[in-house]
Design goal:
Helices cover about 30% and strands about 20% of the residues. By secondary structure, it is an alpha/beta fold. It has 3 domains: about 20-135, Methylthiotransferase, N-terminal domain (Rossmann fold, 3-Layer(aba) Sandwich), CATH 3.40.50.12160; about 145-400, tm_1862 like domain (pyruvate-formate lyase- activating enzyme), CATH 3.80.30; about 400-465, Nucleic acid-binding proteins (OB fold (Dihydrolipoamide Acetyltransferase, E2P), Beta Barrel). The strands form 5 sheets. The chain has a 6-stranded parallel sheet. Helix 11 (about 335-345) links the parallel strand 14 (about 320-325) and strand 15. Helix 5 crosses helix 7 (about 190-200) and helix 11 runs parallel beside helix 12 (about 375-395). The radius of gyration is 26 Å and the shape is globular. The N and C termini lie far apart (about 65 Å). It binds iron/sulfur cluster (SF4). Iron/sulfur cluster binds near residues 169, 170 and 299. Its main location: cytoplasm. Catalyzes the methylthiolation of an aspartic acid residue of ribosomal protein uS12. Belongs to the methylthiotransferase family. RimO subfamily.
Length: about 475
């Protein structure tokens, strides 16, 4: 029997008794790599996996590599070869996993094409995702009371996927960064695994949320993570594409929230073509006048939002745009406010929320000159909502006679209430679906139905399935 010679002490500690799956572990490299190994081993043990002392006794082997100097690269490649020859099921992680050869190809995959998966360093989530994929988790009666998708407060058929925490911006009306800190993106492999678990559990609509979805990956310089053994960039576009592909496998939808109109959002619009990434963007614009946006210190305030919106609609005429605005921000003149109204007339935002500015304790906007009196703030909010009501009425009226796909949220005595691609839960309108005439046709929560729209008001639609 071939012993795993490079296995660290922690991995050989006595494992719990029972027929749990066994993982062999080879740890190479510097102390940072060693800590990564410890974290992976801790997680393995926490999930009930045992560690194996020999390649033959393992159900799968993880090799944590070093890619620093040539000798270390060679040692890592040899260790992978040894594990492949003796065991056959090998997941590779660590610095060498992120290394490319002179031709730009993945070095490990080139030398050892039979490895199951390769991740870079500091990739606990991705490594665990690969372990779960190739060696399913042992049943643990207490932990397994938790479903793989975790505890969710949403109905079974939709769920939120939080892709990052914190924010790098410092909008003058907002105190979120002081509470939650700068942007920290979650590893992409971990997100994909969570999304897969959610789809497997019956989720039909996945709502991507964060403080700034477009900035996903900025904090880690868009480094590559791994999903299903393939490298994938920690970037909004790649994440959206991968989620869309996954959603397609499960016949589900992906909806994007809190998208700032950075230039790369243009690349996301074509991903909305096949209906799995919904043609829907929630873009919190807050204002349209450049001076107000400057005082608000808004991200992407230099972008030409109107031009962008028109260009996106030209690419995908079904695109629904949701946004929020603030009326009566400190210093907002009547002319600046009317500029906002003109923008709204042109942009024809589908779904809009408007708040009268309200000073949040600790926000720097409170120190700005010329605060707008409360009654003026409220009056301006009312004017925005009145305008929006007419825009929304017209846009929804244009859907009468069309057939739209609806996800059923709730059954009612007269039929069901659902949402189309244009309606996010809780914040947008709904589609009231009449009970089908044919007795064999049944409506169910979490089901998609095609609904012919017969009526609309300024918020909701009505139709027959
Ligand atoms: S409002 Fe501005 S600072 Fe606050 S979370 Fe959003 S982008 Fe970040």
């Amino acid at each position: 029997m071939q012993e795993i010679s490079r296995i660290p002490k922690t991995a050989t500690a006595a494992a719990p008794a029972g027929a749990a799956p066994k993982v062999g572990f080879v740890s190479l490299g510097c102390p940072k790599a060693l800590v990564d190994s410890e974290n992976i081993l801790t997680q393995l043990r926490a999930e009930g996996y045992e560690t194996a002392k020999s390649y033959e006794g393992a159900d799968l082997v993880i090799v944590n590599t070093c890619g620093f100097i040539d000798a270390a690269v060679q040692e890592s490649l040899d260790a992978i070869g040894e594990a492949l020859a003796a065991n056959g099921k090998v997941i590779v992680t660590g610095c060498l996993g992120a290394k490319k050869d002179a031709a730009g190809d993945d070095m490990i995959k080139k030398v050892h094409p039979k490895v199951l998966a390769v991740t870079g360093p500091h990739a606990l989530g991705e490594v665990m995702a690969e372990v779960h994929h190739h060696l399913p988790k042992p049943h643990e009666p207490f932990l397994d009371l938790l479903p793989p998708q975790g505890v969710k407060l949403t109905p079974k058929h939709y769920a939120y996927l939080k892709i990052s925490e914190g924010c790098n911006h410092r909008c003058s009306f907002c105190i979120i960064p002081s509470m939650r800190g700068d942007l920290v993106s979650r590893p992409i492999g971990e997100l994909m695994l969570e999304a897969e678990n959610l789809f497997k559990s019956g989720v039909k609509e996945l709502l991507v949320i964060s403080q700034d979805t477009s900035a996903y990956g900025v904090d880690v310089k868009f480094r590559s993570g791994f999903w299903n053994g393939r490298p994938i960039k920690t970037h909004m576009t790649q994440l959206t594409e991968a989620l869309g592909q996954l959603a397609k496998q499960y016949g589900a939808w992906v909806r994007l929230h809190y998208v700032y109109p950075y230039p790369h959002v243009d690349q996301v619009i074509p991903l909305m073509g096949d209906g799995h990434v919904l043609p829907y963007l929630d873009i919190p614009m807050q204002h349209a006048h450049p001076d107000v946006l400057k005082r608000m210190k808004r991200p992407a305030s230099g972008e030409k939002n109107l031009d962008r919106i028109l260009a996106w609609r030209a690419m995908n005429p079904d695109l629904t745009i949701r946004s929020t605005f603030i009326a009566g921000f400190p210093g907002e003149t009547e002319a600046e406010f009317e500029y906002l109204l003109d923008f709204l007339k042109e942009a024809q935002i589908d779904r809009l929320g408007c708040f009268a500015y309200s000073p949040v304790e600790g926000a720097t906007a409170n120190l700005l000159d010329n605060p707008v009196p409360e009654e003026v703030r409220e009056e301006r909010r009312g004017r925005v909502m009145l305008l929006q009501e007419e825009i929304s009425r017209q846009r929804l009226q244009a859907k009468v006679g069309k057939t739209v796909r609806v996800l059923i949220d709730e059954l009612t005595p007269s039929g069901a209430v659902g949402r189309s691609a244009a309606d996010a839960p809780e914040i947008d309108g709904v589609v009231y679906v009449k009970k089908p005439y044919e007795p064999h046709k049944k409506l169910a929560v979490g089901q998609f139905v095609d609904v012919e729209i017969t009526r609309a008001d300024a918020h909701d639609l009505w139709g027959d399935s």
